[in-house]
Specification:
The complex is a heterodimer of chains A (about 210) and B (about 500).
Chain A (H helix, E strand, L loop, with lengths): L1 H12 L9 E13 L2 H8 L3 E12 L3 E20 L2 E23 L7 E17 L8 E19 L2 E11 L11 H5 L6 E10 L2
Antiparallel strand pairs in A: 1-2, 1-8, 2-3, 3-4, 4-5, 5-6, 6-7, 7-8
Chain B lengths: L1 H20 L9 E4 L6 E5 L11 E2 L10 E10 L5 H9 L5 E3 L7 E4 L6 H9 L4 E8 L2 E2 L13 H4 L2 H7 L8 E6 L7 E7 L2 E5 L2 E5 L3 E7 L15 E2 L13 H10 L16 E6 L4 H5 L8 H13 L4 E4 L1 E2 L6 H12 L3 E5 L23 E7 L15 E6 L3 H4 L5 E6 L21 E7 L2 H18 L4 H10 L20 H6 L6
Parallel strand pairs in B: 2-22, 9-15, 9-16, 14-15, 16-18, 18-19, 19-20
Antiparallel strand pairs in B: 1-10, 3-11, 4-6, 4-7, 5-6, 8-17, 10-13, 11-12, 21-22
Helix pairs in contact in B: 6-11, 8-9
Classes of the chains: A mainly beta (about 210), B alpha/beta (about 500).
């Protein structure tokens, strides 16, 4: 039902297309995210970046598309104490899980060449979880925060049902960190859990 | 019971052997009679002792002449590069007869005439351009309020949520050494011969003449619930100037227990950082030290040397449950700075003089100006400032120190120390006065900022083990996570609040 609704939107955006031209494709991706809260992630995890894995579904016609994707970042570091910019890792493990759900509307630039550039923007909802050793329920955190993202990339058709793509995405999810005085986010005044992500995708479908 | 009796018999045998083997001790000297003494006797928690009267105050012993400082000498530090001849000219102006450079010190001890006012002499020297500082040798004392030996449970650890803190860090490890800079520690078994001279002292208007006991053999034993294999490291005694810092008081042993009483051993009580090594550094003379004629007293310079010794010998945490009122002490200030610059954290008792005019206690008064040094106030079981706990801008943290005025008999801090009737034989006058024993132990509740301070020292050891290696950062971690008490924010009663070891040991997460 929802797919039909999205199809109608796509047809409205491009009246020349017909319903028969709307296709559904699935994709899987792997990438690297550098978080906006660079110092905070570096303090806890040792570096501000890490691999992300995800997948999703895309509904589109020749030029316009809508995609719904999810990714997951999970890494374990240590809780810390920060004093005068010196970070002291404590002997308490800390696991961070970031799961963004992204709804993107985009446009493909049809060119005569083999490569198909595309761009888009949309909403981001991030599920953020943090848990540490010997923690209680009150100590752990599991929250959802909303933001937005923009992306651009290029798609390369490989076979009739198979394409590859590479894209870069920047997202902003404000006010997600640093609300607690016992957070490195507050120490570094970093509150945004978005970031820059470089992804490689495999797309299956016509 | 059987073990206690057996230990007692062994002690008597050891004493008998020692009496034959050793020479009589001269005044001011102490000789080892036997280092094969029996283990300590543990009398457990004693429930029905009558209240003990205050300790008699000696009036004629050299160190207790009623003055807060020694006569006959002062401490002075010359600026670097001052020629010896120039130093001599300066000290001649105060009638100095000699000048020594003690070990573990960057200052000199200048001998002056007994009739010269040390404060005036120090002030005169301090005005010389080549003198960095000069001061009288003020006498330190333990920061606890003597109390009755009633026996209670340890409320102090739950009060700071230690059970959860130990989940995060179970008592640190032997890689951390905590120096107990105090009256010594009951750290080993030995029988020593002393010569106890006569003295005069008492409480209030009642003054007694205590007779000379002559050469007496005094048994010592390691506190059973503190001592263990490789537990003690680099012991040093600056009161007797040797390497055998035996506790002749009980204060240092009680304090050492709160720092690191053996825990999970099915015996007695617990300690904060029960796996650390303890460095006994004796810088405070007890009444028995004075009766036995110890060559040194616990003056500022002796304490400063103890601080430097502890740091140079590898201690990473220094517990100073000691202090005095009076003027500041530059040489103590420099010793504390030396400690933090060499990676050692220092916790100091804030003082017990709130109801005595609330004067500033030193060296605690320096704490708020040196990062990595904290002054610790005391709370009672009701989480309110204890009635005695001094207040002021230098108070930075609060910890359980006990308050028997509001908490009743169970309001003290319970740890193992000497069974005091065996030590304070002078307590009830000359009729029951006799040789002390330092090999009989009991679990006694004390109260004082002395008792609060080792909570912070043990806490510092846990933080150091947890990964915070800088003294200044340890102080910041304690203060940032302290539970605010009293007026919101830092205040002069509780400082930043009651220590919260679990929160500090957890530190900061990404978002919480």
């Amino acid at each position: 039902m929802r797919a039909a609704g999205v199809s109608v939107v796509l047809l409205l955006l491009n009246p020349a297309a017909s319903l028969a031209q709307v296709s559904v494709r699935g994709f899987g991706d792997v990438g690297l995210t550098v978080f906006n809260a660079t110092q905070s992630f570096k303090a806890i995890l040792g570096k501000p970046s890490g691999p992300v894995f995800g997948g999703g579904v895309e509904l589109g016609e020749r030029r316009f598309f809508v995609s719904l994707g999810a990714q997951r970042f999970r890494k374990t570091g240590h809780r810390v104490f920060v004093f005068e910019n010196q970070v002291f890792p404590l002997n308490v493990s800390d696991t961070i899980t970031v799961t963004p759900l992204e709804l993107t509307g985009g446009y493909r630039f049809r060119t005569s060449g083999r490569f198909i550039p595309y761009g888009g923007f949309g909403g981001t909802w991030v599920r953020f979880k943090e848990t540490s050793a010997h923690s209680t329920e009150a100590d752990d955190i599991s929250e959802t925060h909303a933001g937005y993202h923009v992306l651009g990339g290029v798609e390369v058709p490989m076979q009739r049902w198979l394409s590859a793509a590479v894209d870069a995405q920047w997202s902003s999810v404000p006010n997600a960190l640093g609300n607690s005085p016992t957070s490195v986010g507050s120490v570094y005044d970093e509150h945004n859990i978005g970031g820059f992500t470089l992804r490689a995708k495999i797309i299956i479908g016509r | 019971m059987f073990l206690s009796k057996t230990a007692g018999v062994l002690t008597i045998v050891a004493l008998a052997i020692g009496a034959v083997a050793a020479q009589d001790a001269a005044p001011g000297l102490r000789a080892i009679v036997s280092d094969l003494a029996a283990p300590g006797i543990d009398n457990g928690v004693r429930m029905s002792d009558a209240p003990r009267p205050p300790r008699p105050y000696p009036t004629d012993l050299s160190s207790r002449n009623g003055m807060p400082y020694l006569r006959g000498s002062i401490a002075v530090k010359f600026r670097p590069g001052t020629a010896p001849a120039a130093q001599q000219i300066m000290i001649d102006r105060v009638g100095a007869s000699a000048m020594d450079v003690p070990s573990y010190a960057d200052f000199n001890i200048v001998t002056i005439d007994d009739t010269t006012d040390p404060e005036a002499a120090a002030a005169m020297l301090a005005r010389q351009p080549d003198v960095e500082y000069a001061q009288a040798r003020y006498i330190m004392h333990p920061m606890f309020v003597p109390n009755d030996p009633l026996y209670v449970q340890q409320w102090n650890f739950p009060a700071i949520d230690m059970e959860h803190a130990w989940d995060l860090n179970p008592g640190a490890t032997s890689s951390i050494t905590v120096a107990v800079i105090d009256s010594g520690v009951a750290y080993r078994s030995v029988v020593r011969r002393f010569n106890a001279s006569s003295w005069r002292g008492g409480t209030g208007v009642t003054v007694f003449n205590f007779p000379a006991l002559g050469p007496i053999d005094v048994p010592f034993a390691a506190a059973p619930d503190i001592a263990g294999p490789d537990r003690f490291v680099a012991p040093r005694d600056f009161i007797w100037n040797d390497t055998d810092p035996l506790d002749l008081d009980g204060h240092g042993t009680h304090v050492a227990g709160t720092v690191g009483e053996l825990t999970n051993n099915s015996i007695g009580v617990a300690g904060m950082a029960f796996n650390v090594r303890i460095m006994p550094v004796k810088v405070i003379d007890s009444l028995w030290d004075d009766i036995f004629g110890s060559p040194f007293q616990g003056t500022d310079d002796v304490v400063a040397r103890g601080v430097r010794y502890a740091v140079d010998s590898g201690a990473k945490v220094l517990n100073m449950s000691i202090g005095r009122t009076g003027p500041p002490s530059p040489l103590l200030q420099e010793a504390l700075i030396y400690a933090t610059q060499h990676g050692a954290f220092v916790s100091i008792a804030a003082g017990n003089e709130f109801e005595l005019g609330n004067p500033t206690t030193w060296p605690a008064g320096y704490a708020n100006s040196i990062q990595g040094v904290v002054a610790v106030g005391a709370i009672g079981r009701d989480r309110q400032r204890a009635f005695y706990s001094s207040t002021g801008p230098y108070v930075e943290l609060a910890a359980p120190g006990g308050n028997q005025r509001s908490g009743g008999s169970s309001g003290g801090i319970l740890q193992q120390t000497f069974d005091l009737p065996f030590v304070e034989t002078y307590q009830f006058g000359p009729a029951r006065y006799g040789a002390p024993r330092f090999d009989v132990f009991a679990y006694l509740p004390f109260q004082g900022t002395s008792m609060a301070t080792p909570h912070v020292s043990g806490f510092a050891a846990l933080l150091m083990q947890q990964g915070i290696t800088s003294p200044a950062a340890i102080e910041a971690a304690m203060e940032q996570f302290a539970t605010d008490l009293g007026p919101a924010g830092r205040d002069d009663q509780y400082g930043y609040g009651l220590i919260n070891p679990r929160a500090s040991l957890r530190g900061l997460g990404l978002a919480k």
